[in-house]
UniProtKB/TrEMBL annotation, chains A, B:
<keyword id="KW-0238">DNA-binding</keyword>
<dbReference type="Pfam" id="PF16925">
    <property type="entry name" value="TetR_C_13"/>
</dbReference>
<feature type="DNA-binding region" description="H-T-H motif">
    <location>
        <begin position="13"/>
        <end position="32"/>
    </location>
</feature>
<dbReference type="InterPro" id="IPR011075">
    <property type="entry name" value="TetR_C"/>
</dbReference>
<keyword id="KW-0804">Transcription</keyword>
<dbReference type="InterPro" id="IPR009057">
    <property type="entry name" value="Homeodomain-like_sf"/>
</dbReference>
<dbReference type="InterPro" id="IPR036271">
    <property type="entry name" value="Tet_transcr_reg_TetR-rel_C_sf"/>
</dbReference>
<dbReference type="GO" id="GO:0003677">
    <property type="term" value="F:DNA binding"/>
</dbReference>
<feature type="domain" description="HTH tetR-type">
    <location>
        <begin position="1"/>
        <end position="50"/>
    </location>
</feature>
<dbReference type="Pfam" id="PF00440">
    <property type="entry name" value="TetR_N"/>
</dbReference>
<dbReference type="InterPro" id="IPR001647">
    <property type="entry name" value="HTH_TetR"/>
</dbReference>
<protein>
    <submittedName>
        <fullName>HTH-type transcriptional repressor ComR</fullName>
    </submittedName>
</protein>
<keyword id="KW-0805">Transcription regulation</keyword>
Amino acid sequence: MRVFWADGYDAASIDRLCRATGMPRASLYQDFGGKEGLFLAAIAHYVETRIGPVADALEPSGSLDADLSTYFARVVALATDDSQTPGCLISCVLAEVAGANDTFRLELDRRFTALEDRIAQRLDHEVASGAVTDTRALAGMLAAVSRGIMLRARSGAQAQDLDKIARVAVRASAREIV
Amino acid sequence: MRVFWADGYDAASIDRLCRATGMPRASLYQDFGGKEGLFLAAIAHYVETRIGPVADALEPSGSLDADLSTYFARVVALATDDSQTPGCLISCVLAEVAGANDTFRLELDRRFTALEDRIAQRLDHEVASGAVTDTRALAGMLAAVSRGIMLRARSGAQAQDLDKIARVAVRASAREIV
DNA sequence: ATAATTACAGAATGATCGTTCTGTATCTTG
DNA sequence: CAAGATACAGAACGATCATTCTGTAATTAT
């Protein structure tokens, strides 16, 4: 997973992947069918271990403001904590290969939609006790900001600068909902 | 340029690039020094011909709301108008290779910063006659939304859905500035 | 006209690629 | 114990890669 994240899909060689996973070549083909299958498995693992905790911040446990702040703090941390793996496997690597590979494009759409659903769910929880608004579009915007933050981290941006962006987004959400 | 945009950096072969540009192999090496140089030239051309017109919408010519709406309409159009080249050369292709190549990472940082500067400039123009606010962070957020929209387009999203996201972002900006 | 220079098609080069295969060691079963 | 199955290191395979080189045709200069 980290090799794909750091180097990209095409630049990640089977040799390198075997070494990094400690898995023999024959087993890789037997278990995953090839490079494509291994990549999809890496993404599933990334979603479970990295995106999962980020999205869990969206469980209603405090005010919307506090939950979104926690969510974005985790987004920024995920994107910047390890200089070897800047940004996001999905937004930076899967997105590139999605251009010419339909399997990957569908996977990208699926993963993006899942995050937006999660955000919209949290917003719906707030709206149920508030004003009528288009939570789906707001969720789309918050997801877009998250991805923009991931990309900015890939270019070398510091966490404190990304935190500022996140704060604007959280503020905007509060205003949109109220 | 379109080959890199559609296929990605590593998947774009020199053969394919020569055919697409109508340029003989020897000339490509003579003029650009190699694949890396050609890619950077393609990015410069993309910035001039595609990002340029988008950013020009930020010249103060109407209300901030109107200018940002025009800007985002162009972002969405750039990202979705041609199904062969979905998304953005910079946010989808350059960002991927930036992970393991410092030249590309610096270029990504440069291009991202340039767009943020442009947006901040437009916001400063508005603030000069209004309230005090952190235009840099707001510009960062608007740029992040733009990139998020580009990525969402790469996954196959339709323009009308992306327009909704843009509208939320424009509304948020108006509120932040006033 | 001839000689020199330029432009270009495509071959050559050395390397790398993803996938499949082979041989050997180890483990399991009867 | 022997036979069969499994796991694995790494070679083989056919293909592709980016870069450099070669030979030839076209153009330019004298």
